[in-house]
Amino acid sequence: MHCPFCRHTDSRVVDSRTTDDGTAIRRRRQCSECGRRFTTLETTTISVIKRSGVTEPFDRQKIVNGVRKACQGRPVSEDDLAMLAQEVEETIRALGAAEIEAHEVGLAILAPLRRLDVVAYLRFASVYQAFDGLGDFEEAIDVLRQQQAEQSGQQTIPAAVEPAGAGAKKRSGRRTRPRSLDGVSQPRLL
Ligand SMILES: [Zn+2]
Fold this sequence. Notes:
InterPro entries: ATP-cone_dom (IPR005144), NrdR-like_N (IPR055173), RNR_NrdR-like (IPR003796). Negatively regulates transcription of bacterial ribonucleotide reductase nrd genes and operons by binding to NrdR-boxes. This is Transcriptional repressor NrdR. The protein is 40% helix and 17% strand. It is an alpha+beta fold. The strands form two sheets. Strands 1-2-3 form a three-stranded antiparallel β-sheet, with no helix packed on it. Strands 5-4-6 form a three-stranded mixed β-sheet. Helix 2 crosses helix 3. The C terminus is likely disordered. Bound molecules: zinc ion. The site of zinc ion (ZN) has 8 residues, from loops. Zinc ion binds next to loops.
């Protein structure tokens, strides 16, 4: 690695410690040419497997760019986008997998985006989930309304309306999905 000050190719490690969350190692280095110090961060890369089968490294900036399009004209700041991307990365790292499919990245975006801005969420979901017509939007909006009602503390939704989830049907069976997004509240329209 080049020294960021003088581009010299040799440096020595003067300090090395694991970050608080244990996901990376921070090394303090000193350039053997100019003597200045800089920090490197060593972390595992996560490969994203695209639908075409091509893999590329997970990149937070790609999340920001993708979501920014859906947020045009909405009261969403660059800070909001950066925090959303960070949350997505944390969700994905928590899966503990070295490789992840692109659609799982999309899934991890939906929940935080829904909290951030419902209009942007609908735009993103409509592209990501290939909405095909008014019916898909209506369905998604119904789910949003239901969730908002639940959040505002109304308990008027009869239990019968709740979708019979796989959990209810197969309670006896063991969960077989290898990498579930546990801890992420997934929208029911999935
Ligand atoms: Zn240097």
